[in-house]
Amino acid sequence: MVKPGTRFTEMIQNIDYAPTFMEMAGGKPPDGLHGRSLVPVLRGETPSDWRKSIYYRYFSEISHNVPQHYGVVTGSHTLFYLPESKEWQLFDHGKDPPQLRNVYDDPAQAATVKRLEAELTRLREHFGDTEEVTMPSRFRNPPKAGKQDDS
Length: 151
Fold this sequence. Notes:
The chain has 151 residues and is α+β, with helices and mostly antiparallel strands. Helices cover 22% and strands 16% of the residues. It folds into two domains: 13-50, no CATH class; 53-140, Arylsulfatase, C-terminal domain, CATH 3.30.1120.10. It contains four helices and four strands, in the order H-H-E-E-E-E-H-H. The protein is globular and about 50 Å long.
C-alpha cells in the first residue's frame, strides 16, 4: 500500500492505530473510539478534514523526570502548560527545532498564544480532559531502590 521511501507529514497519534488495524482487518471501529484510521493517509488520500493539531498529556515524572503537563502540537508550534508550577511554554518549531527557547511571553507571539490556547481548550473539551489533575507526590517521586517510604 505504501511505496518504499515514502515520508508522511500528516499528524498522527497512537490513538490512530486501533482504527487503522480494524479497517485493515475489514472491521469498523466502535462509536466513541478516539483516533482515525490511517488507511486513507497510507494510500496517499489524506482527508481534507485531517487534524492540524495534536493534544497530549504527560502524567508521570517517575521514569523520565519530566513534570506533568499538557499541551498542543501543530506543524509550527508546541504550547503546553505545567499545572504544578502554573507555567506556560511556547516553542516555535521553525526558529527553535530543539525547543530550547520559551517564547510564550514574547509580545510578537501574542496572536499565536491566543490561537493555540483556544485550540488547546477545544481539544481538552473534545477528549473530556478538562480537570486539573496532579499525581500525589508519592507517585511522582518514588523512593530510591533499597529505601523504604513509611508514609
